[in-house]
Amino acid sequence: MASNEPNVVSSHEGELKRTMTFFPALSTVMGTVIGAGVFFKAASVAAVTGSTSLHMLSWFLGGLISVCAGLTGAELAAAIPETGGMLRYIERAYGEFWSFLLGWAQVVIYFPANVAALAIIFGIQFKNLFGLSNAAIIPIAIIAATTIMLINFLGSKASGMFQSITLVCKLVPLALIVIFGLLRQGDVSVSLFPVEAGAHVGGFAPALGAGLLATMFAYDGWIHVGNIAGELKNPARDLPRAIAGGILGIMVVYLLVQFAFLRTLDISQLAGNENAAMDVAGKIFGGMGGKLVTIGILISVYGTINGYTMTGMRLPYTMGLEKQLPFSDKLVKLNKNKVPYIAGILELVIAVGMMMIGGFDMLTDMLVFVIWIFYTLVFIAVIKLRKSEPDMVRPYKVPLYPIIPIIAIVGGLFILVMTLINQFQLAMIGIIITALGIPFYLYLKKKYK
């Protein structure tokens, strides 16, 4: 039945045209979430779980939590379709202070840590592919992050085109590893039952918590998929289908990739092996074929760095416009291509500093822990705003309310608590860096009052 709704949705930023249907929304979800984590988090998940069964369960539960998280967060995205996304949801529910802390955490931890971690893994794979020494990893990582920043300085059209090209390169290695990895006779027998932790990982619950934390880096990105709500013709029908179908599809792909990995490498060979993706590709496709697939993975990682660079450099610019950061007048400066180049340089400098002091797993675990504090606040905000603002226009409401938000909240709390138990020092570093924003908030609030 045709809808009588006008073909636009109002927002503070103007009007968004409702032109998107289900399948473009589905591909947007999958393209946003699928990144480098599926290739390179396998090693850390295997290391902390110690068994094939718990390894696979971690990826499965990580997907289910992400489905519930995406379905929950999308309610606020549809109701508050404003530039800033999660910043606006947090501000609406909890006030300016918590919104500032989220922005601060994203500027000084989330985006630069993503760039740093991915650049390090790029350096490791590049080093292994060309037989270089370990001393080359960090210089290669810095070169990768810097060249991507320079591409972004050419303007959003150049960086967007580059992102589209690398999206294809991201999907090709995935498809090849899944298809040929499952068709060939496996080198290793994979046992999925009974589900149990490895003998030396410290118990089932801590191992599952650490495994979930690691998988969350691969599933990260679902918070952004709700941003398409204002452009869907029928958000109430198509948004939950796109999110649930998209993340379930991603979960299936991830499980198939992990199964192919485990059929090719024993769990002990996979655990902690930063070169696992290249080893698997070499075993499946042989020497030259493995190298070609690895090159495809490298291009994929390079493109993923571009995505976080393109988004990350615009956040300090946006916060600068609102006088929410030190040196805000500098952060809002644009180059001739209308790119916030000083904000970009700031993010690059922080990322390079992180490359010097942290490895891939440390950086990704810290950024996931910090961002999941705010994700969990978003889930709680859905319930909070249902009570405090019952008349808010909600083009889409989370299905099976409040069950799905509660699952998302419980999943988020489990990840946070287990990180505090298993990686207390890392968690405290993340909390302390986030809390360092408080003096700046108080100073700037007083200055611009």
UniProtKB/TrEMBL annotation:
<feature type="transmembrane region" description="Helical">
    <location>
        <begin position="101"/>
        <end position="124"/>
    </location>
</feature>
<feature type="transmembrane region" description="Helical">
    <location>
        <begin position="60"/>
        <end position="80"/>
    </location>
</feature>
<dbReference type="InterPro" id="IPR002293">
    <property type="entry name" value="AA/rel_permease1"/>
</dbReference>
<feature type="transmembrane region" description="Helical">
    <location>
        <begin position="366"/>
        <end position="386"/>
    </location>
</feature>
<feature type="transmembrane region" description="Helical">
    <location>
        <begin position="21"/>
        <end position="40"/>
    </location>
</feature>
<feature type="transmembrane region" description="Helical">
    <location>
        <begin position="339"/>
        <end position="360"/>
    </location>
</feature>
<dbReference type="GO" id="GO:0015179">
    <property type="term" value="F:L-amino acid transmembrane transporter activity"/>
</dbReference>
<feature type="transmembrane region" description="Helical">
    <location>
        <begin position="398"/>
        <end position="418"/>
    </location>
</feature>
<protein>
    <submittedName>
        <fullName>Amino acid permease</fullName>
    </submittedName>
</protein>
<dbReference type="GO" id="GO:0016020">
    <property type="term" value="C:membrane"/>
</dbReference>
<keyword id="KW-0472">Membrane</keyword>
<feature type="transmembrane region" description="Helical">
    <location>
        <begin position="167"/>
        <end position="183"/>
    </location>
</feature>
<dbReference type="InterPro" id="IPR050598">
    <property type="entry name" value="AminoAcid_Transporter"/>
</dbReference>
<dbReference type="Pfam" id="PF13520">
    <property type="entry name" value="AA_permease_2"/>
</dbReference>
<feature type="transmembrane region" description="Helical">
    <location>
        <begin position="284"/>
        <end position="305"/>
    </location>
</feature>
<feature type="transmembrane region" description="Helical">
    <location>
        <begin position="242"/>
        <end position="264"/>
    </location>
</feature>
<keyword id="KW-0812">Transmembrane</keyword>
<keyword id="KW-1133">Transmembrane helix</keyword>
<feature type="transmembrane region" description="Helical">
    <location>
        <begin position="424"/>
        <end position="444"/>
    </location>
</feature>
<feature type="transmembrane region" description="Helical">
    <location>
        <begin position="203"/>
        <end position="222"/>
    </location>
</feature>
<feature type="transmembrane region" description="Helical">
    <location>
        <begin position="136"/>
        <end position="155"/>
    </location>
</feature>
